[in-house]
Amino acid sequence: MKFFDNHAHLDDEKFDNDREEIIEKIYNENVDFISAGYSLEGSKKAIELSKKYDFIYATCGISPNDIPQSEDELWIMLKEIEELASKNDKVLAIGEIGLDYYWEKDENMRSLQRKAFIEQINLANKLDLPIVIHTRDAIMDTLTILKEHKVTNKGVFHCCPLNRELVKEALKLGFYISFAGPITFKNSKNANEIIELVPNDKMLIETDSPYLSPEPFRGKRNDPTNVKLVAKKITEVKNMELEDVARITYENAKDVYKIN
């Protein structure tokens, strides 16, 4: 039984002391994964990891929480992201990109987030790649941008907020919904409803390692082997076998990311 964690951050400093050992554990437990870029430096590290191991892939992009303070700096950064993505065949998507108003309260910086999001959608279309979306406290603006700026290869709402209207609209637009550790949390009131809402051919699983560890490891460092616990929660809600969830989500990842 093989699993696909479509969003992890193995470049994070929390893995600096035992990264090789954790990667060996992930391999031995039959989990392939994407090391997701979120900044220029993080994207470079993700690509380095993907080059070193066959079962690791990469995305590259600038997340809303990692954009620079000026538009001029943003353009320079986006040029470097384009170069990274265009020259490395293990880069599967542009991401994570999107909007995050939870941390950013300044309207000028929110405007720059929107510009960065739109420009990276354009970049993904130019490079014929899907996108990986991060959205937090910015659902309406995220959906508005996606409706006004066509995404040729669609993509994934990573660690998708458990919001019924967001999920319904995202599915209408053709995006995949990626479930992470929060669906296992005891205080996650509407997780079951959202899981049932997403058709099998549009669901993905992830860990967002080293963050958001699923129960019973909540609060501890997360790693891609825990993607099995996310899958297990889906089996309970949808009355499916674990092997079927593993197979379906792996096939969905191959479809959206165009993995041979």
Layout of strands and helices, then pairs:
Blueprint: E1 3-8, H1 19-28, E2 31-36, H2 40-52, E3 56-60, H3 71-87, E4 91-100, H4 107-127, E5 131-136, H5 139-148, E6 155-157, H6 164-172, E7 176-179, H7 191-197, E8 203-205, H8 227-238, H9 242-257
Parallel strand pairs: 1-2, 2-3, 3-4, 4-5, 5-6, 6-7, 7-8
Helix pairs in contact: 2-3, 3-4
The proportion of strand residues reads 15-25%
Our count of helices gives 9
Overall shape: globular
Order of helices and strands: EHEHEHEHEHEHEHEHH
What kind of sheet is the major sheet? 8 strands, parallel
The figure for the number of domains is 1
| Helix content bin | 40-55%
Structural class call reads: alpha/beta
Query: What does the average pLDDT come to?
Result: 97
Look up the CATH topology: TIM Barrel
Q: Radius of gyration in whole Å, from Cα? A: 17 Å
CATH arch. level architecture = Alpha-Beta Barrel
Quickly name the level 1 CATH class: Alpha Beta
What does this structure look like?
The protein contains nine helices and eight strands. The chain is an alpha/beta fold and 260 residues long. It has a single domain, classed as Metal-dependent hydrolases (TIM Barrel, Alpha-Beta Barrel), CATH 3.20.20.140.
Can you tag this structure with a few keywords?
globular, single chain, TIM Barrel, 9 helices, alpha/beta
Give a brief outline of the structure:
This protein has helices at residues 19-28, 40-52, 71-87, 107-127, 139-148, 164-172, 191-197, 227-238, 242-257; strands spanning 3-8, 31-36, 56-60, 91-100, 131-136, 155-157, 176-179, 203-205. With 260 residues, the chain is α/β, with parallel strands linked by helices.
